[in-house]
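Milestone M4 deliverable, item 7.
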Amino acid sequence: MTIQYQINTPISADQFIDLLRRSTLGERRPIDDRECMEGMVNNSNLLVTAWDGDQLVGVARSMTDFHYACYLSDLAVDQNYQRQGIGKQLQILTQQQLGRHCKLILIAAPAANAYYGRIGYTHHPRCWILDREQTL
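Output delivered:
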């Protein structure tokens, strides 16, 4: 098996949804809301993907200014391909697209919390989320 990595190669919402289902991330994403999923794919400005032949097996989906902050919104690897370094390589390739001062920022899934510390991320307790249903 040779995994090929690509930068900003377009993927369809169907490919993205299928991968999320094959990873643990599908449980925490609105995979039944087609419009939302299409928007997530189409409006990301940095997409790093991992492929086994023509099958999408990993994705790092980000929004960034490329100079100061990069929000790594989705890091998903097919469960059958996990623990092979694909997720780490997706992050390395994402980071390589960014300027030297740019930080990767993410919100970890509970099951992945320990993973990020092991690969060099620093935990910051300050994160605030305002759901759309909330009013200011």
